[in-house]
Amino acid sequence: MVLQKRLDYGFNGYQVPAIPRATRSARKRVPLRKRVEGNQISAFDLLATVAGTLLLDKESSPASNNSWNAEDQSAVEKNNVKEERQDGDQSLKLETCNVSELVPQTNDPNYSSRESPGLQNGNQFGVTSAISTSECLERLDSQKLINGKIKNEMGGLACKVETGPFVSRTPGDCVEPVSENKVLTDEELDRTNKASTGEVADKCPLEDPLVLDGKPPAVVSSDSSIKAPSFGEHDPFISFPVQQYDVNVVSRDDDEKSSGCTHPSPIREPFRSTPRIGDRRIRKILASRYWKVALRSKNATYSNYDENLKSGYCNRSTYKRLRSGRNFPFKKRKFLHYTSESNSDGGTISEGISDLPEKNINGKASILYSKMHGVTGESSSLADQRKSFNSRDPHVKLRIKSFRVPELFIEIPESATIGSLKRTVKEAVTAILGGGLCVGVLLQGKKVRDDNKTLLQTGISHDNQMDALGFSLEPNPSHASPSLCPGGSPLTLPHDIPLPLASLGEEANFLSDNSILIHEAAWFKCMELVSPGKYPANPGLVNQVTFHPSTEPCMPNVGNFIESNNDCTASPTDMFDKSTTESKALVAVPAMSVEALAAVPVHKKSKQSEVAQRRIRRPFSIAEVEALVQAVEKLGTGRWRDVKLRAFDNAKHRTYVDLKDKWKTLLHTARISPQQRRGEPVPQELLDKVLNAHTYWSQQQAKQQQQQLPESCLPHYNSTMIGSGRCDDDENILG
DNA sequence: TTTAGGG
DNA sequence: CCCTAAA
């Protein structure tokens, strides 16, 4: 009897291989998420509104000083600027992915049968919303640098984001997500909502770049390696990319004073998706939100840069104008720099200059702000490199126009109020954007995991034929949310709440990478402590959550990721690995109390990548072993999928591979002496059954094979009658 | 996707 | 548990 239905809101965009394939397939049959019905749009708008409050509230706060560069202002107003601008030191330009899709989840009768009547008749708030999507990720992948330019498929739709208003923080300002620092009352939220739905839509039209440009939607490049996402078919999420990023890789021109090549390269492939205003809004907001965090948290080294940004974008009046203006902040702007257009289609990478700071990929490359501040910022290592490559400039300049916000899931009771939904969404978004991010580097669609490689070794150099250099934002296992910041995040555990981890037992895994990986149940236990009643005990979809204690309270999160030597590719997902693209995401990176988490003695320094992606070890209980043995007795040893469905269909974390492996170990255990066995002792009775079943089914298999041989000579036999292994699930061979 | 088997 | 060849 279902006492309380829960709704899942999927912010699809960040993919975590948390749910094994088998589980996924099982989920297909019994979807847990509600279908997206006719009210999806309104629900979406709701989310958009919620997200909108994140930034708008913030933006309405007293902006800091600033003197928006007049040049920039005018640039913003010229939305369709085709000409490349020399705006290196003026602003950070972001380009968002403007494409989104609302993808109704599959219609599964089984699923609907699980829904309450109210839900079935479409009254439910059956919304599964997703911010950002694998699709967008895919598109990231599709970015190609071809002959000195990056073909940005998103270009057609991307809207440039002038992050000005969002980065208008004073240096002392701590990361404090919009209004997320306090839990809004329902009334407040409602009020905000009204304002958002109305004003946001008006002031933040997030115009479709297509319209702006009058260009048709772009389409993902024909690059076959880029698989179109198919989240809609198996994952009942509405997915919409929050943000796209553009990376511009150009080699540095000899003349650093030039802001780079001024030849615009409007070559952009149309995108296939149809943008929707609503999610554009969200996306943009989130994107901006992210960047606010990012810029805000730059470390001191780039304070100048920050200041510039601030001064460039902090002007509230400008922002107002932008918001109300037709073209709003998402001014179209060209950021690709090419030496020459003719060069862009063939030959080698043309020279050009990016006036934006470089991404420091392995911690050795320098971040060049030469164009912006006359700061060379060239590291000695690079200098050395240059010596050895004095024939050319060893610098790689990258321009990242925008990032997308990782995916997150939200689950909330049906009985929850809209206000609480808003808060929940906001908190989740805030947590994500609040610092739990890391950066992955992708080259030619594949993650570059070796942080020790140089750019040159990796193939990222200006005179190489570069193909799709990309960056991805992923929840960062090594960064906690800025929970110590003034006001703190709503997700921050109150300091007087005892660390719940101790009570989590095996549900919490302390990883060597200074992080704590806990299971869903544990997560909800934690969250229950934070917000009683708000986080139901049975999370359902959420598989596992990682908490990461941080020793850096109000950290310059992004500063870290920009400079970090850490393996930021350690994210639980490799979004460009097919197979993983389908995996289920989960990312709620609540900002737990830093003190609390810091109390956990964990070692820092370790390969986050492996740790982060590896599933938690979950030893089989005796009951599970019993179920497994029973199922195998009936089904045999070669039907692990059936075993899974029969005995472990509800155990989402047990895949048929797991079961097969467990059987393997059980068999091994049964064959060794009891003295050699380790771990929780398995009753000898069960082990005997294992041996018996194995023996039996081995014989069956042999028998079947022997029968099949003559069968080929006796075509009149019905092969399905031969062999008992695959006839009937209910037959109990071993009786 | 599932199975099978090595790591 | 992971990885992956093979089916």
TrEMBL record:
Q: Where is the composition biased (Basic and acidic residues)?
A: 79-92
The residues that cross the membrane are: none
What residue spans carry the region label Disordered?
A: 59-125, 253-274
Which Gene3D superfamilies is this protein grouped with?
A: 1.10.246.220
Main subcellular localization, coarse class? nucleus
Outline the extent of the Myb-like domain: 612-667
Q: Where in the cell is it found?
A: Nucleus
Cellular component terms, GO, for this chain's entry?
A: nucleus
Query: Does the keyword Nucleus belong to this entry?
Result: yes
The UniProt entry, under InterPro entries, shows: Homeodomain-like_sf, Myb_dom, SANT/Myb, TPR1-6-like_ubiquitin, TRP_plant, Ubiquitin-like_domsf
Q: Where is the HTH myb-type domain?
A: 612-671
**Listed GO MF terms:** telomeric DNA binding
Q: Compositional bias (Polar residues) at which positions?
A: 61-72, 97-125
Any idea which UniProt keywords this protein has? DNA-binding, Nucleus
Q: What is this protein called?
A: Telomere repeat-binding protein 5
Q: What is the source species?
A: Gossypium anomalum
